[in-house]
Amino acid sequence: SWRDGPPVSLFPDEIDLVDSRDVAVALRGLTKSFDGRAVLAGLSLRVERGEFLAIVGPSGSGKTTLLRIVAGFERPDEGSVEIGGRDVTLDPPERRRVNTVFQSYALFPHMNVLENVAYGPRMQGLSRRGRHARARDMLALVRLEGVAGQRPHELSGGMQQRVALARALANEPEVLLLDEPLGALDRKLRDEMQRELRRVQAELGATFLYITHDQEEAFGMADRLAVMRDGRFVQVGTPSEVYDDPADAWVALFVGSGN
Ligand code: ADP
């Protein structure tokens, strides 16, 4: 009978065939509705360890909702979230090995830069000296050793965002979620931070799940893009695959529109 056969995969990719040790995030069949309206309409995605994956799509397509579900701020109606090979669908945010960097830096104004970076739920098991040592490593990574003793308000916007990045990475997340992290920066600073983010990601071999509405940014930075429309992925592929071989006319137009 069908019960004896292999499990039927409901999902279009080969998600269950790869070695799960190489998978940082596996999303399967996610759905989410608000007020009876489907915001996520059945999403599956695999993000590999060390991969920089950008999610692009028009405003309202569900990008932030997806990231909030991965972070644990929101529960899916259906489907599952695996992080580092562990099913975390029902786990609260603090029990997931993820960190989020937002457009607003949310640094603690009363703490200096080093203390900001050293502050984190997963660093509480370390001694103060251990936390500070790790924080210094992270500040070196983002090239801010020189301002460890300063308060956030003494720094430029770009520097504050690098502190936020260092703080998020200091927790050694399995995956870093970035929601329009450069959205508040001006063009020049944005270009500089794009290079900086990419360098840090590559140096650490970190896994980045990155939301942006800036397609130039996504195409320039990401290993792969997931193009989202109305709560679905219409195409997942490398920048050149998406650019040269768009899945349909909508993707072609979206990619060509620049924003
Ligand atoms: P994007 O990040 O692509 O702009 P969002 O995930 O922010 O998309 O939003 C997708 C849709 O879901 C929007 O129409 C938004 O209004 C709606 N939405 C998101 N969060 C909530 C919520 N908590 N309650 C009701 N509607 C929501």
UniProtKB/TrEMBL annotation:
It comes from Faunimonas pinastri. Belongs to the ABC transporter superfamily. The chain holds residues 10 to 268 of 396 of the full protein. The keyword Protein transport does not apply. The keyword Transport applies. GO terms for molecular function: ATP binding; ATP hydrolysis activity; transmembrane transporter activity. Residues 25-255 form the ABC transporter domain. One of its GO terms (cellular component) is ATP-binding cassette (ABC) transporter complex. Keywords: ATP-binding, Nucleotide-binding, Transport. It comes from the Bacteria. One of its GO terms (biological process) is quaternary ammonium group transport. This is Spermidine/putrescine transport system ATP-binding protein.
